[in-house]
Specification:
Elements lengths: L5 H11 L6 H12 L3 H17 L1 E2 L6 E2 L5 H4 L4 E8 L2 H9 L5 E5 L17 H11 L3 E4 L5 H14 L4 E4 L15 H9 L2 E2 L2
Helix pairs in contact: 1-2
Length: 199
């Protein structure tokens, strides 16, 4: 990047690697950090390193956690008969922001996409089937992005789960191809309320 000293250019380049960060935002973030006291920068860098080394996946639902099980799986106050299937932890967090859903989750870690070389065996689908069977789950809600990949994954997972439990899919007041994490809380709440049986 012209006009910047090499160390600053490297920092800006690193910010640009983050999703949703363009060149101008990367530049703003880098310049903001340079104006901070060294102690604040050290705390920031320690938080990054600690998060990377300490955060893993929940052994049960595959959400992010620093322990063996995440806080949601450990919460006995949640509906233990209901599982909402999401693609990524960011989708789980979007649904949690609605404060409407009180069940458990299962993060499958992506969507089936043959074009990208992602098959069902690369996702946490078999663990979901075992979990539903073992825990006598009464309903599984599929909350996957409304896209070709999301629809393919929903149909695949739905067919596998139907012998074990009721399978529903959230209603969509979302445009096809949009991402759940960017939807507002009201739209997500209505989508959860309007869920229907998977055909």
């Amino acid at each position: 990047m012209s006009g910047f000293t090499k160390p600053l250019s490297k920092l800006i380049d690193q910010f640009e690697q983050l999703p949703g960060i363009g060149p101008r935002t990367a530049q703003r973030l880098a310049l903001h950090l340079l104006r901070q006291p060294e102690e604040k920068i050290r705390l920031f860098s320690e938080a990054l390193v600690n998060a990377k080394s300490q955060v893993g996946q929940c052994k049960k639902c595959f959400h992010l956690t620093a322990g063996e099980l995440c806080e949601i799986c450990l919460n006995k106050g949640r509906n233990q008969d209901l599982i909402c299937v999401v693609s990524e932890s960011r989708d789980l967090l979007a649904l949690e922001r609605t404060r409407e859903y009180k069940g458990l989750y299962h993060v499958i870690g992506g969507l089936i996409s043959p074009m990208d070389g992602i098959g069902p065996e690369m996702l946490e689908i078999s663990s979901l089937i075992k979990r539903v069977d073992k825990e006598n789950i009464k309903e599984v809600i599929l909350a996957l992005t409304p896209s070709i990949e999301g629809d393919t994954t929903s149909l695949y997972v739905g067919r596998l789960l139907k012998p074990f439990t009721k399978v529903t899919r959230i209603a969509y007041g979302l445009p096809v191809g949009s991402e759940l994490e960017y939807a507002d809380e009201v739209t997500l709440s209505r989508a959860l309320e309007g869920r229907r049986d998977l055909d």
